[in-house]
Amino acid sequence: MAATGVQTDRRPAVFLTGGSSGIGAAIAAELAARGYLVGCASRRGTVPLASGQLVPIRLDVTDDAAVRREFAAFVAEFGLAGLVNVAGAHSAAPSHSLDLDELRRSFELNLVSAVRLAQLAYPHLADGGGFIANIGSFYADLGVPGRLAYSAAKAALASVTRTLAVEWARDGISVLTFAPGYVETELNSVHLEDPANRDKIVRRIPAGRVGSAEEIGRLVGRVLDADCSFLTGETIRIDGAQGVRQ
Fold first, then answer.
1. Structural domains counted in the chain
2. Does residue 74 fall inside a structural domain?
3. Concatenated DSSP letters of 27-75
4. Residue at 4 is within a domain
């Protein structure tokens, strides 16, 4: 974990996974702009922009020992106001031939890592309240061919959010899931460069376009910065109305 030059005299600190690119990077940048000090944990160990409010942390969130070590070091140095679990990935496979090891890997990355970090964060947040935000997916509520592992893991993550919200509400900890729909990031930008691919996706979205990581970042940052612990246990879907379309 690199902390050289980081300013610690502004807002409390947030530990965020998946912070080097895409939605995670956008959320990190928004929180930093709001004065939070953000520990950006990712396998790359990079931050999305040059800022004294962003701390690069090289971390594989499926490595239990490394997670415990890096999280403890961050909190010891900066304290903790909140946790944002963004790290995740999905792969495509027909359900009848899905490798069960791939299913386990998906759950470890998309679900277990978030639960592990929430458990680590709890004793620190319970002292004075705070927030935990999980980045889910609108796939959690849909039947998406070829995405059994990812969809199931994200559905379980939303369930975890509800359970933790109920258990930890009296500690002043707000727990939320944000569930994006189709959002353009560097992971799918090549696919979306093909007009046919983009058009196929856009036709399903009432808003008439895919979302942007920056939109998700702005929403998450503003909700978390609202200091409203009464908002807890909810899944906030951001999908251009695709999930409710008949």
1. 1
2. yes
3. HHHHHHHTT-EEEEEESS---SS--TTEEEEE--TT-HHHHHHHHHHHH
4. no
Active-site position among 36, 122, 150, 182: 150
- 154 touches 179 (CB < 8 A): yes
* Residue 150 annotated among the catalytic residues of the structure: yes
**CA 17, 23, 27: angle at the middle one, nearest 5?**
70
Q: How far apart are CA 84 and CA 224, in angstroms?
A: 10
Q: What would the pLDDT profile of 59-102 be if each residue is shown by its tens digit? A: 999 999 999 999 999 999 999 999 999 999 888 899 999 999 99
**Please, are residues 110 and 157 in contact by the beta-carbon 8 Å criterion?**
yes
Q: Please check whether residue 245 lies inside any domain of the structure.
A: no
> Residue 17: which domain range?
13-239
Q: Which CATH number is 56's domain given?
A: 3.40.50.720
Do 25 and 19 touch, CB atoms closer than 8 A? yes
What are 57's two structure tokens?
A: 């942390």
CA dist., res. 13 & res. 39, Å (int)? 7
Tell me how far apart the alpha carbons of residues 242 and 234 are, in angstroms, rounded to a whole number: 18
* pTM for this entry: 0.92
Q: Is 1 inside any structural domain?
A: no
For β-strands 173-180 and 183-184, DSSP reports them as: unpaired
Q: Which helix (H) or strand (E) holds 23?
A: helix 22-33
User: Does residue 224 carry a pLDDT above 90?
Assistant: yes
CA angle 42, 114, 4 (to 5 degrees): 35
